[in-house]
Design a protein that fits this description.
The chain is an alpha+beta fold and 297 residues long. The chain folds into three domains: 90 residues, no CATH class; 127 residues, Jelly Rolls; 72 residues, Phage tail protein beta-alpha-beta fold (3-Layer(bab) Sandwich), CATH 3.55.50. The chain contains seven helices and 18 strands. Helix 3 packs antiparallel against helix 5. The radius of gyration is 29 Å and the shape is extended.
Length: 297
């Protein structure tokens, strides 16, 4: 609502100098300015009231003809401008979907492809010409159920995933790039490598290593409130617990690189901590509801 109010004040020339300077710093100002500039070049034809009145008398007509002044066309131009700006905002501006710590976000793309964002993840994309250019940028982890159509591309800082119509999971966190294909085919580009994944196949790139594996699931464990770990370090596991529960964990151990294989729930913090404490022989201390200490016994 504030954006619409600022836009109306700017169009009416009612902004103060301070308000105008602040408005010019917004990312949308350039688009507003260009549309307004183009609209200002549209000119309405001159309206000759006297000539029209003379013609009426000469033709001896008795009908009453309302005379509309140029203000009508100005209002129409403003309406067109507003609709144009709305169209641009909805289609050309980058759309962002995100999930904060301890949360998930589910949404639908313009082609009805379904996306579920895991905690601390974000996706950016543009609606304009989406059916012909299905590209988005991912930070974090997401599960995709892609509608059939043209090429669907997911770009991350670590690599790129390309599909047509399929279901797959992409994780790009720190230096780990992990992709799992559940249906269809997935093409993975990582640095100079290109790999094709078929259903039940998974690949992980981390610290210049490539690990290929098989899965028997039809969707990621985290959609069922579980996280599966396979020979992962304690620090990696704790990072994921902090992300899923939005807590801070202080680890006091001399063996932070010890590996763990197993599953941890994402909907019960006490059980998750108990599993880690049992596996690593920790004692758990809750300083506050969101501050936890794990210390060797």
């Amino acid at each position: 609502m504030k954006e619409n109010y600022d836009l109306a004040k700017w169009l009416a020339g009612e902004m103060t100098e301070i308000e105008l300077n602040d408005f010019k710093k917004t990312p949308e100002f350039y688009i507003y300015y260009k549309i307004a500039d183009y609209s200002s070049q549209l000119k309405t034809p001159p309206f000759e009231e006297n000539q029209l009145y003379k013609n009426i008398l000469e033709n001896n007509k008795t009908n009453i003809i309302p005379l509309y002044r140029n203000w009508f066309f100005k209002i129409a131009a403003i309406v067109v401008l507003f609709l144009s700006i709305t169209f641009v905002m909805r289609n050309f501006i980058t759309e962002t979907q995100s999930a904060t710590s301890g949360k998930r976000t589910t949404f639908t793309l313009p082609d009805n492809s379904e996306v579920v964002l895991n905690a601390e993840s974000q996706i950016d994309y543009k609606k304009w010409n989406w059916s012909e250019n299905r590209k988005l940028t991912l930070k974090g982890e997401a599960f995709f159920k892609v509608a059939k159509g043209k090429r669907f591309e997911v770009t991350t800082l670590l690599g790129k995933v390309t599909v047509l119509g399929t279901q797959f999971d992409v994780k790009a966190r720190k230096n780990r790039f992990e992709i799992t294909c559940f249906t269809g085919k997935v093409k993975v580009n990582y640095k100079h490598k290109e790999i094709i994944l078929t259903p039940g196949k998974s690949v992980t790139f981390e610290n210049e290593l490539q690990i290929n594996s098989k899965v028997s699931l039809t969707k990621p464990d985290w959609l069922d409130n579980k996280i599966a770990f396979n020979r992962d370090s304690l620090m990696f596991i704790v990072d994921e617990i902090q992300r899923q529960y939005d807590v801070s964990i202080d680890i006091r151990t001399n063996h932070p690189d010890d590996l763990f294989t197993g599953k941890i729930p994402t909907d019960n913090l006490d059980i998750a901590l108990e599993i880690i404490a049992t596996a690593y022989h920790f004692k758990t201390m809750k300083v506050t509801p969101n501050k936890i200490i794990l210390e060797e016994k």
